[in-house]
């Protein structure tokens, strides 16, 4: 009977320090640390030890974090909160066209607001329009005026009136698909050029308020705010924590408050090589990929039965000659056993 010697690589997922959960599908690992830090300290720690404070970009991630959180581990029964990577920008207005090379110094800050605008009393008015007088106003992004699109060709910029009622996101998508983008108004001369095509209409331009940012620079628009949050009237609450007594719902807090915090990073793994002997009793074709895959599944089941978790991954390792399987050299093994006996 043919006796074979083979080598496999076992990759074992190792959980890091602190209570953690692993999302195998996304290849990310989340760490909830119960030691209290302010937002800046937590951000520094996550960047040094892992990747960054957590970016929550889906309900799936929220479920993982809720499953990770142990309410008994928080420092106070009255505060089940942990910092996420979301924070508030002090200057939230920015242009849809984000290419920095398009703007000269100071041009991203040009504004031509009408009197009393932007109206900060309404937190849902986060998009900008222009009237026939060339003055700007902030409005609900779901409003449906006409829009102006910009065509950018080098230093030459032209503007086109689109006589279709669209929300601001619809206008942005349309302009990006058919032109360059919604217009960025960099100076008074460009404001007058846009005004010239507006006529007697109200139109969208490219300025919008995007006051929330993720620590790692992600642009996820997913949100999980608690009722009544965010509170735009409280200017000193600029960092966001998840309240795990309320299913992880988000709320604003001053950044100098000390909270538990959540880091994330790639899944950490260790590779272990081991040699396995077996007899090919059924004379299987060991070069058949299906046979090799079936053998890996059987090995994985045996290792799981011995206590290894579901995150274990197995793969075959080729030797220097390009082969995985080798016949056992009985003479060599006999000599080795004799030396061991001596």
Automatic annotation (TrEMBL):
InterPro entries: C-type_lectin-like, C-type_lectin-like/link_sf, C-type_lectin_CS, CTDL_fold. Residues 25-150, 159-264 form the C-type lectin domain. Signal peptide: none annotated. Residues 323-342 are annotated as: Disordered. Gene3D superfamilies: Mannose-Binding Protein A, subunit A. Transmembrane segments: none annotated. Residues 332-342 have a biased composition (Basic residues). Keywords: Disulfide bond. Pfam families: Lectin_C (PF00059). This is C-type lectin domain-containing protein. It comes from Perca fluviatilis. The lineage of its organism: Eukaryota, Metazoa, Chordata, Craniata, Vertebrata.
């Amino acid at each position: 009977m043919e006796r074979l010697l083979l080598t496999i690589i076992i990759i074992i997922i190792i959980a890091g320090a602190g209570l953690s959960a692993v999302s195998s599908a996304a290849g990310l690992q989340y760490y909830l640390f119960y030691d209290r830090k302010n937002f800046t300290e937590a951000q520094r720690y996550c960047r040094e030890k892992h990747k960054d404070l957590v970016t929550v970009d889906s309900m799936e991630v929220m479920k993982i974090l809720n499953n990770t959180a142990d309410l008994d581990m928080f420092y106070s029964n009255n505060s089940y909160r942990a910092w996420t990577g979301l924070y508030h920008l002090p200057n939230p207005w920015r242009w849809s066209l984000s290419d920095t090379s398009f703007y000269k110094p100071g041009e991203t800050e040009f504004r031509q607001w009408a009197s009393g605008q932007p109206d900060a009393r309404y937190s849902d008015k986060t998009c900008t329009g222009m009237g026939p007088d060339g003055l700007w106003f902030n409005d609900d992004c779901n409003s449906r005026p006409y829009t102006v699109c910009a065509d950018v060709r080098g230093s030459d910029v032209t503007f086109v009136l689109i006589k279709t009622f669209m929300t601001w996101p619809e206008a942005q998508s349309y302009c990006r698909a058919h032109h360059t983008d919604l217009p960025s108004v960099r100076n008074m001369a460009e404001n007058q050029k846009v005004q010239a095509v507006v006529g007697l209409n109200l139109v969208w331009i490219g300025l919008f308020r995007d006051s929330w940012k993720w620590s790692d620079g992600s642009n996820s628009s997913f949100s999980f705010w608690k009722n009544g949050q965010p509170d735009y009237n409280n200017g000193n609450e600029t960092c966001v924590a998840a309240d795990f007594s309320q299913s992880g719902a988000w709320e604003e807090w001053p950044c100098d408050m000390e909270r538990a915090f959540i880091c994330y990073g790639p899944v950490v793994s260790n590779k272990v090589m081991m040699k396995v002997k077996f007899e090919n009793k059924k004379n299987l074709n060991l070069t058949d990929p299906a046979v090799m895959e079936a053998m890996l599944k059987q090995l994985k089941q045996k290792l799981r039965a011995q206590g290894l978790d579901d995150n274990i991954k197995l793969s075959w390792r080729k030797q220097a000659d390009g082969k995985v399987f080798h016949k056992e050299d009985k003479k060599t093994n006999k000599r080795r056993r004799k030396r061991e006996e001596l």
